[in-house]
Design brief:
By secondary structure, this protein is an alpha/beta fold. The protein is 35% helix and 18% strand. Helix 4 packs parallel to helix 5. The longest helix has 16 residues.
């Protein structure tokens, strides 16, 4: 919602209608297609209306296209008319809104049909191809832009500055850890010309505060189990609640109700164990991973959580994190894909030795752009 600057004539007019001195706001301003070369970052937690904002832009474009031909002089740069909108969605996001038509710009509560003006892509090279194939499109909406490689940011910037194209980038900037999502998100912040922040109500049943954060949790036996800090960075989830220890749920939460157990453990215990393993001392890490896999209550993680939340009102929900399966797989992938402490060879050997869930790891590593063939033969010789 945007505040209208006070103006004497506006104030006098409102007073003549019997209004007291009030602040007047725009609930929503129709989109301006006349301004070229913008990169508009629409940020906020899940459920804050980022994609719905894009749908409103799409609807405004349909109205603007119905204007006379003289309007094109205001909205076009070369062959590209900014009233013509194209929607880009990540291939990682296929599970969301799968009940809608293939050409849907879908959001919670509805969708718009895009016809041929929609594509699903995997990386910045695919975006370049779509841009090349559609020279008349002036406005590009790239949903969940943080899912892509860093190069995409410069593809967007160059096309925007050189051709007058307008890009709208509805995306998460903060991940479930409340950190900057990734290098792509950081570069988008650096190169954006406009930022539109959105918020939502905290989705905790006993809270009505504004929320800025995306919360990831799993549901096990009906219990809310917050994701541990070392949970994989990207785990694609849909918009339907899931009762599954491997598939997460997402919602938006305020500071008080955004639970994130395991952050101290990650830096005090897990990462030092990974550093030892990188120097050839694999046994301590292997022992902790074995406990996380088969007897989590005896692990150093459990000891840490019980001690940290002993006198804390969050104790029950944070300890529920120990109910989530595949904690060893998550911890090992964190050390490999994010901290680069574990080599691919060691990852394969520990996966084999500890009988970890290969299929889950292969899928998750692929989503996080660190694909590994976990089925290749184990080298001779034991590590520990």
């Amino acid at each position: 919602m945007q505040r209208i600057e006070k103006h004497p004539q506006t104030e006098h007019f409102l007073k003549s209608l019997g209004f007291p001195s009030v602040e007047v706001h725009h609930a929503f301003i129709h989109f301006d297609f006349t301004r070229p070369s913008r990169r508009i970052l629409v940020i906020g937690p899940m459920g804050s209306g980022k994609t719905e904002f894009s749908a409103r832009v799409w609807r405004d474009a349909q109205v603007a296209l119905g204007k006379s031909d003289s309007i094109k002089a205001l909205t076009a740069t070369g062959p590209a008319d900014r009233r013509k909108v194209f929607f880009i969605r990540s291939l990682l996001d296929l599970e969301r809104f799968n009940e809608y038509p293939e050409d849907a710009l879908a959001y919670r509560g509805g969708y718009e049909r895009c016809g041929t003006s929609i594509a699903r892509i995997q990386d910045s090279f695919a975006l370049e191809e779509v841009l090349k194939d559609n020279p008349d499109i002036g406005t590009w909406i790239i949903d969940e832009a943080s899912f892509y490689d860093e190069r995409l940011v410069y593809v967007v910037r160059n096309a925007s500055e050189q051709r007058g194209l307008l890009f709208i980038l509805p995306t998460l900037i903060l991940n479930f850890r409340r950190d900057i999502f990734n290098p792509t998100a950081r570069l988008m912040l650096e190169t954006a010309t406009d930022v539109i922040p959105l918020t939502a109500y905290c989705e905790h049943p006993e809270c009505l505060e504004d929320s800025f954060y995306t919360y990831r949790y799993y549901t096990v036996d009906g219990k809310e189990c917050p994701a541990l800090y070392f949970d994989p960075l990207i785990v694609v989830g849909g918009d339907r609640k899931k009762e599954d220890a491997l598939e997460p749920n997402y919602c938006t939460r305020c500071d008080q109700h955004h639970y994130l157990p395991g952050k101290e453990y990650t830096y005090f215990t897990l990462k030092p164990l990974g550093e030892l393993a990188s120097r050839g001392e694999v046994s301590p890490l292997a022992e902790e991973l074995k406990l996380l896999k088969h007897d989590a209550q005896r692990s150093q993680l459990a000891e840490h959580l019980h001690e940290l939340y002993a006198d804390d009102s969050r104790q029950e929900v944070c300890l529920n994190a120990l109910l989530v399966t595949n904690m060893a797989e998550r911890a090992l992938m964190y050390l490999f894909s994010e901290q680069n402490l574990i080599t691919e060879e060691l990852l394969i050997m520990l996966t084999e030795e500890l009988q970890l869930d290969r299929e889950y790891m292969k899928k998750t590593l692929e989503h996080n752009r660190r694909s590994v063939n976990l089925d290749q033969p184990l080298l001779k010789g034991m590590l520990f």
